[in-house]
Amino acid sequence: MAGRINYCSIQNSLWLLNPLHSKASITTTHFRNRLTFPQNLYSYSKRALLCTCSASNGESNSESTDPFVLTTPLYYVNAPPHMGSAYTTIAADAIARFQRLLGKKVIFITGTDEHGEKIAAAAAASGSSPSEHCDVISQSYKTLWKDLDIAYDKFIRTTDPKHEAIVKEFYSRVLANGDIYKADYEGLYCVNCEEYKDEKELLENHCCPIHLKPCLARKEDNYFFALSKYQKSLEETLTQNPDFVQPSYRLNEVQSWIRSGLRDFSISRASVDWGIPVPNDTKQTIYVWFDALLGYISALSEEKDQSNLQTAISSGWPASLHLIGKDILRFHAVYWPAMLMSAGFTLPKKVFGHGFLTKDGMKMGKSLGNTLEPNDLVHNFGPDAVRYFFLKEVEFGNDGDYSEERFINIVNAHLANTIGNLLSRTLGLLKKNCQSTLVVDSAIAAEGSALKDTVEKLVANALVHYENLSLSSACEAVVEIGNAGNSYIDERAPWSLFKQGGDASEAAAKDLVIVLEVMRIIAVALSPVTPNLSWRIYEQLGYSNDQFNSVTWNDTKWGGLKGGQVMAQPKPLFARIEQRTESEDGVKQAAKPAVKKKEKKPKAEAVAEA
């Protein structure tokens, strides 16, 4: 049964909402009647579109001083966080840290989406009120983000009063532009997606292709947003600015959706009490997506500011990058831009839709009950191992599959062996032969060294990969720096040169300076991905925490270490993780943690959905 809108009592219901007109102009497969919209309102939205294109092409004189505003989705609090939401946030944090290294003012926004039917149902199932439920789950996100070394700048909750005020103001602005009307709707509704579905996109028995559960037949009298009015504007936006949606294959998906014809969508729910009331009809609440998308703007308002739309917009909008999972691409690349056009605001500069993390070949999600518990991973192996594995082994944008064996092998090979062992054995040799003191500046030590040239090329590669959001390739480039350092020390064999004494011993001391300079550069270049590991490297190189926190990407240039610098006492940087062992009764024993094991937090009973 395809969804259909029954446009009822137009003359009686629309004059209140849209006194500017009463006849129609847009045809979609949902409508039995036709609607028109004033041409002057279309032109107003067109100006917003053109502003977006100029703001996105890098030609603005103010771009260098504009903040880099980065967002994750606002995570739905029907259940505690899972690895899918952790993955998005880890990637966003790495991007934010890289931008800070470049000297940008970064506003990294994350938060929780706390309204809707699923939230009320989850609260009822746990015997708590929706507000109490949201408080608990929202805090669980903050706790996990702290454990994963997520350095966000803003955490917005859609139950914040300042957010509600901005949502109502935005709704009224779109209403005044003639883009909201009331009508009956009948269709197939996925509760987990919080979205009406077209029958053609469903599986057998009307099952949602994402959650594999049957959609419910529903009929409601709701308010609708005139999405179809913005079809041409959206097409032009994507044509003029193809980088708006990335990766390119996600852009193709979005263009296909738009070409197939956009239909107006419901932005209110008559049957959902837990939500923001519609300003002109308190019997209905605002649709959870229309509500949550505005969190990207409401998060920009400062606590001391009066909660109004213009103040929030002037505090950093437009967003530089919306980072999302591919399952919510339509909301961010179609619905959200059209909403902003209607309100007359600039569009975000880029929407990046990454792939799913899979387990047993299936998307992990709360609704599917096959999640990977991120708290277990971080408490068993530490944040650096978790962050590194998912950013290195999942090509950003594509799907990626997790297995514990691969996780342990990669982390041991790269962090414990390539990086950790190189630092430990070099500092050990320095302590034994040079009293932990550098004999010469690293710039002088590397004169005529091919290793310096190799490192500089790999650093340049890493920079480009970070800028292009190719996080896996950036990690690979940094690990290659470590491989080059290991090859150098193996070839030079300074332990043998020290035994020879004289000029050979002096050459060996210079070799150690060169390798430790390699380690310093690795610490800076990998710090967006493994901030704690990078700090521990810097600490062993004799730097203070303040010095580490003040580094920039310029510190990847060769020549940071100076003669006379005293290194710290060598200690293991990253302990190898032992594979699971099987006991005599055939039960697998847990892998040995890479860091001291913290007390485990109680496992949440609910499962999570991306």
Automatic annotation (TrEMBL):
InterPro entries: Anticodon_Met, Met-tRNA_synth, Met-tRNA_synth_2, Methionyl/Leucyl_tRNA_Synth, MetRS_core, Rossmann-like_a/b/a_fold, tRNAsynth_Ia_anticodon-bd. SUPFAM superfamilies: Anticodon-binding domain of a subclass of class I aminoacyl-tRNA synthetases, Nucleotidylyl transferase. Residues 202-427 form the Methionyl/Leucyl tRNA synthetase domain. One of its GO terms (molecular function) is ATP binding. Residues 579-610 are annotated as: Disordered. It catalyses: tRNA(Met) + L-methionine + ATP = L-methionyl-tRNA(Met) + AMP + diphosphate. It is an enzyme of class 6 (ligase). GO terms for cellular component: chloroplast stroma; mitochondrion. The keyword Nucleotide-binding applies. Its EC number is 6.1.1.10. Residues 444-582 form the Methionyl-tRNA synthetase anticodon-binding domain. One of its GO terms (biological process) is methionyl-tRNA aminoacylation. Coiled coil: none annotated. Belongs to the class-I aminoacyl-tRNA synthetase family. This is methionine--tRNA ligase. It comes from Acer yangbiense.
